[in-house]
Amino acid sequence: MANNSKQQLEARRVEILHTQYQHTALNQEAQQLLTQHNLRDTSTNRSYQRGQLLFLKWASDNNISDNNFSTIDLINFLSTMKSTYDYAITTLQLFRSAVTQLHHNPISLRDDPLLNKFIITLAAQAPPIRLHRPTIDLQPTFNYLSNLNNASTTFASLQGKLAFLLGVACFFRPSDLQRIPLASIQVSSDFTFLSLESTTLCPIQTFLAYRDRHPQCSSINLFVNSISPDQPLQASTIQGWISRLLRKSTSKPRVSLRCIASSLALASGVPKEDVVTMGNWSNSLTFENHYRREHLSLFDFTSILITLD
Q1: Residue 52 and residue 152 in one domain
Q2: Total domains present in the chain
Q3: What is the Cα–Cα distance from 164 to 171, expressed in whole angstroms?
Q4: For the segment 92-105, what is each residue's pLDDT rounded down to a tens digit?
Q5: How many whole angstroms separate alpha carbon 175 and alpha carbon 270?
Q6: Burial grade of 130 (CB within 10 A; 0-12, 13-18, 19 or more)
Q7: What region does 105 belong to: left with phi over 0, alpha with psi -120 to 50, or beta?
Q8: Dihedral angle, C-alpha 214, 220, 223, 224, nearest 10 °
Q9: Domain of 184: which CATH number?
Q10: 76-96, pLDDT tens digit by residue?
Q11: Are 60 and 151 members of one domain?
């Protein structure tokens, strides 16, 4: 997509999401809350954006309504994406959810039997999912962070360090970190029982140093725009800080610090119920599906299952 075309599509995407609730019985406050939720800089909304832009381009090229399309239209779009780009079934399922969000009556699409049958058919043709997921050792990242002096490192680096440590210790997502008000954080006068032996890796010590260097600005949040503190900080920027630090421990793309921290906690003996609650996982099964795939790599199934009497 050319830059101008992409900008036009993005403007149309935002327009659709802005007007989605205007013709409902919702009051102005409820409409604004729901609209802001759909436009907020979250991992879900970012993952939806590409599918929505692809659909808007496809709908424009084929003279199809971009917010009142039929089930057949959505199936044809997904089929085109499959045949043109050979997207995986998981990506097509994501596109389905993303495009459904643009429809003026999304409920009419979510339970459509023909659409569901199409997705099931694609899933049946997809190659098997790779079960093993290796454990990621964060020690290289921790070694790097321990060498960052809280008093002398750049403010931007200190923000990244604090975000990473809080992400590990509290299972925070970037969108969670983005919303923390600075005034909401209180440090007890006796916090030694929480403090790590290595003060350079202690989230509390890092926060205290960070608080002393926090700029005076209009933002009320813990993390701020390093270049222009009065300008909004996007969750994607925090994700960038964390991703750069994760690359010191793994070359794998699209890894989640919350997932890594949750698995490390479970492997260290923290009860699964506490990990699910602390990590704010939607339910135990969601976490189980993530962790068990990683846990499988600990077993040598070849030696266990293929033997000679």
Answers
A1: no
A2: 2
A3: 10
A4: 999 999 999 999 98
A5: 25
A6: exposed
A7: beta
A8: -80
A9: 1.10.443
A10: 999 999 999 999 898 999 999
A11: no
